[in-house]
Amino acid sequence: MSKLSAAITAVGGYVPRFVLTNAMLESLVDTNDEWITTRTGIKERRILKEEEGQGSSYLGIKAAQDLLKKGNIDPAEIDLVIVATATPDSMVASTAAFVASEIGAKNAFAFDLLAACSSFLFGMSTASSYIQSGKYKKILLIGADKMSSIIDYTDRTTCIIFGDGAGAVLFEPNTEGLGLQDEYLRADGSGRKFLGMDAGGSLMPATEETVRNRKHFIYQDGKNVFKFAVSNMADVAALIMERNGLSDQDVSWLVPHQANRRIIDATANRMGLDHSKVMTNIHKYGNTTSATLPLLLHDYESQLKKGDNLVFAAFGGGFTWGSIYLKWAYNK
Question: Hey, which residues are catalytic here?
Answer without folding.
Answer: 117, 257, 287
